[in-house]
Amino acid sequence: MEIISYDKNKEVKEATAIALGNFDGLHIGHQKLIKTMVHEGKKKELKTSVLLFTTHTKRVTNKSKKLNMLTSNNQKIELLESVGVERVYLMNFNKNVMRLSPKQFVEDILISKLHVKLAVVGFNYRFGYKAKGDSNYLKKLGKELGFEVIVVEPVYSKESIISSTLIRKLLKEGNIKKANEFLGRPYEMEGKVIAGNKRGKRLGFPTANLELDKGYLIPKFGVYKTITVINGKEYLSLTNVGKNPTFNDYNVSVESHILDFNQDIYGEKIRIKFLQFYREEIKFNKKEELIDQMLKDLEIIKNN
Hints:
The protein is of the alpha/beta class. The chain has 2 domains: 156 residues, HUPs (Rossmann fold, 3-Layer(aba) Sandwich), CATH 3.40.50; 118 residues, Elongation Factor Tu (Ef-tu), domain 3 (Beta Barrel), CATH 2.40.30. Helix content is 31%, strand content 30%. The chain contains 10 helices and 16 strands. The strands form 4 sheets. The protein has a 6-stranded parallel β-sheet with strand order 1-4-3-2-5-8, with helices on both faces. A 6-stranded antiparallel barrel has the order 11-12-15-14-13-16. A two-stranded antiparallel ribbon has the order 6-7. Helix 7 packs antiparallel against helix 8. The protein is elongated, with a radius of gyration of 22 Å. The two termini are 38 Å apart.
C-alpha cells in the first residue's frame, strides 16, 4: 500500500475511488463504508484510496473540546491495508483547509489534485467550512463535476447507531466486550515502555509501564485481561489502568504484567489489546493483600 503525504503542488494521475471521513476507531460501520469503496472502485478499475487527516477535524475546529482518539494513524493505516485499500493520502487539517468552502474542497482537492471519480461517504458526512457541506450536497457536486457519490447507511446495534461516540462511552464504562464487538477487534493502545517505580518487580510482579502515544482514550480505571504485543509476538497479560490507590499515586498509568516473559524491553514500542474488564481498582491496606489479589487475578485470566 502506498502512503502519500498530500502536497498541494502534486497531482495524482490515476483515476481514484476515495473514502472520506475522520474514521476514528475504524469501527464496523467505517469498515462497511471502506469495503464498499474498495469493491466498487475495483469494479470501475479505479485506484482505491482513503483520505486521512493527521489531526482530527474537531481538534482544529473546536480547540476547547477535548477529544481522545480510539486509533492512531499508524493503526488506521494497518487496518486499511488489511481490507484492500491501495493508497492512503495523509493531509494536515489546518486553518487553510478548514476555511475551504465545500465546493472549493471538492474542486481544489478531490477533483484537481486527487482525480476522484468515485467518492464513498457515510450518511452523516460533513465537509467544508463550518461543516456546511453534507452527503446530499456532495451528490449534487458529483453530478455537476463528473464523479459518482455513494452514501453508505449506518450500521445498527438494536436501536443504536454504531459510532465512535458510542464506543468511547462503552470504554469509559468498562464495557470492553461490547466496545470490541463494535470495533470489530480488540481496543488497543500503543506506546513506549518506560522505567516506572519498580514496585511491581519488588512485589514479584514486574510490569511494563506504557508511555502512551498522545491523545488516546483511557478506558475505565481497573484491571483488565489483555494481550501485549512485543515485536509482533502476542503474550497474555494483566493490565492495570489507573492511579494505583494503594500507593496514593496521582498520575494515570497503564502497566502490564506479561506472563511468561522476562526480557528487558525498556524503550521499545509495544501494543496492549484489551480483552476483558476484570475488576475496579482497589486500595489495599497491606502489600500482602495486594499480592494475594494479584495471584487471584492471574489465576482467573489464565483460566478464562
